[in-house]
Design goal:
Layout lengths: L4 H17 L3 H6 L2 H19 L6 H26 L7 H17 L4 H24 L5 H20 L9 H8 L11 H17 L1 H11 L1 H6 L4 H27 L10 H11 L11 H20 L4 H37 L8
Length: about 350
Amino acid sequence: MGLTPSNRDAQTRADRIIADYARPLWQRWLLSRETAVIVALIVVAIVASIVVPNFGTTTTLGFLLLDATPILLIALPMTLVIVSGEIDLSVASTLGLSSVMLGVLTKAGWPIEVAMVVCIVVGIVAGMVNGFLVTVVGLPSLAVTIGTLALFRGIAVGMLGTTAITEFPFEWQNLVQMRFGTSGIPVVMVLVVALIIVFSLVLHFTPFGRGLFALGLSKDAAAFSGVDVDRTKFIAFMLTGAVSALAGIYWTLRYGSARGDNAIGLELSVIAAVLLGGVSIFGGKGAMHGVVAGVLLIGVLQSALRLANVSSDAINIITGALLVISVLSPRILGWFSARRAASRRSRSTPALTQPQ
């Protein structure tokens, strides 16, 4: 019995990854897409510092990191989801719903600390809804999260309409904006770095993370290997909802405004950063340090373009172009690698001689 197209694609991806691990460790680290993104980040940052006025200041660094924080937060669990072969397009809507909940509860007189906990719980529930529909009902994650994108955003807008809540405790807003001395680095980066370390350890050094990679390569093979497929995916979606809600709290305090339309379109930047950082859209491949570099690369580009007075529409076009390139480039590189390998095999195969 022949392989189905989906199984054949999974086998091809598995063969490529096995071939990658046949190379020496230094080649896997230096000659990788993640390293290329890090190098691109450094080059773009240096060029922007030279070309764009005021880019290389500590003030710009501070605002760049503040702007990149919600994307970086959501990109961490999004990496887990995409590595498993799924996707979550509802993250920005979950952020918006969390923002509205924080505003409504704070206005109603709830202590903001309690309101934050409730917002995280709401995010977990939103993630559980996505996970239930994908793992239990068996619907494709793309269709599910497009639906919940509209659902969560509709609930957020319905709760506040076109109004905004702007009264929040000053000490919390000040904490989000606070910097370490004159370095320009926001204090909130301590939380971000801690989460980067946690998600990196989970993805690369735990059975749960190895199960995500196995799922991305082949769901059937992962199940035969002992991976609880549904439970693993469910947890990944739940984490995405929780961290998206955390990003909603940050967004609300940073901008001092709870609105139903907060962070519309942010999912585009998140997915673009994850894919740009080397995570395969088909699952089974990726590294957290590449994702962090991808987020910072997009942040540096957007910050430099804004300082250069480029319009927001043009910036969105560039972000979309990066997303398309991120999806296409692995396919193109894989095609060239396959052709080169086939050419080497044909040259190394001895010609058959005809019998006398």
